[in-house]
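Progress note, sequence design subtask.
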C-alpha cells in the first residue's frame, strides 16, 4: 500500500513544481511523470489527466490557506491587526512553498472555472473581512466589491508574482509590514503595528 501512496505524492510534488514553473498549458503528463520518476500509467491511476491533477493541487492549496486565515486572523481589535495577519499568512506561505503559491497565482483563472465559487476560499475571506470592517474603514459595500476589494487583494497577491520573476527580493516575509501599512492607508484605517520599524526601513 505504501508504494502507490509514495508514487502519488511524488506525482503531486512534481506537478506542483512544474505547473508553478511553466504553467498548466505548457506542462504535459509525460513531463510530470518523468520528473516524478514514475510511469505515465501511474499518474493516470490517480487522476484522469493533468487538469484533474491541477484542480486537486489548486483545491489543496486554497484549503490550506483558508484554514490558516480562519484560525489566525483576529475577528476583533484594531483592523490593522487583521490586515497584517492576512498579509503575513500569504507571504509566509510563499516563502515556505513558492512553487505551489506561484501555481495558485498564475493558474487561478484557468482552474477557478472548474470549482464551486461558493466554497470558502481566501479571496472571499478577504472581501468578507473588508465588509465586516467597513464601518472602521468608512467604506460602503459597493466600493468593497468594485474597487477596494480587488485593489487591495492585488496588493497582497502581486508581490508573490513579482518575487517569482525576481522583481522584488525574497523572502517575502521581509515585506509584510510595508505591504500591510500600504493596504491600511488605502482603506483608511490607522496603522498600529511596528510603525517605527517600517519608517526606519524606508530608503532615504
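Output:
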Amino acid at each position: 500500500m505504501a508504494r502507490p501512496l509514495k508514487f502519488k505524492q511524488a506525482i503531486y510534488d512534481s506537478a506542483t513544481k512544474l505547473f508553478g514553473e511553466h504553467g498548466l498549458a505548457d506542462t504535459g503528463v509525460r513531463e510530470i511523470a518523468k520528473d516524478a520518476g514514475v510511469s505515465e500509467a501511474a499518474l493516470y491511476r490517480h487522476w484522469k489527466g493533468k487538469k484533474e491533477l491541477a484542480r486537486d493541487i489548486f483545491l489543496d492549496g486554497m484549503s490550506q490557506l483558508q484554514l490558516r486565515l480562519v484560525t489566525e486572523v483576529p475577528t476583533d481589535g484594531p483592523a490593522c491587526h487583521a490586515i497584517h495577519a492576512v498579509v503575513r499568512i500569504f507571504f509566509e506561505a510563499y516563502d515556505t512553498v513558492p512553487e505551489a503559491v506561484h501555481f495558485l497565482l498564475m493558474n487561478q483563472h484557468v482552474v477557478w472555472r472548474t470549482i464551486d465559487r461558493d466554497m470558502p476560499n481566501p479571496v472571499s475571506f478577504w472581501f468578507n473581512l473588508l465588509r465586516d470592517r467597513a464601518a472602521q474603514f468608512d467604506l460602503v459595500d459597493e466600493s468593497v466589491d468594485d474597487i477596494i476589494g480587488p485593489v487591495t487583494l492585488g496588493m497582497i497577491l502581486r508581490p508573490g508574482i513579482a518575487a517569482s520573476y525576481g522583481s522584488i527580493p525574497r523572502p517575502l516575509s521581509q515585506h509584510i509590514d510595508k505591504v500591510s501599512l500600504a493596504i491600511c492607508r488605502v482603506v483608511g484605517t490607522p496603522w498600529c503595528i511596528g510603525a517605527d520599524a517600517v519608517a526606519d526601513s524606508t530608503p532615504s
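The two ends are 60 Å apart (CA to CA). Work on this subtask will continue into the next period as scheduled.
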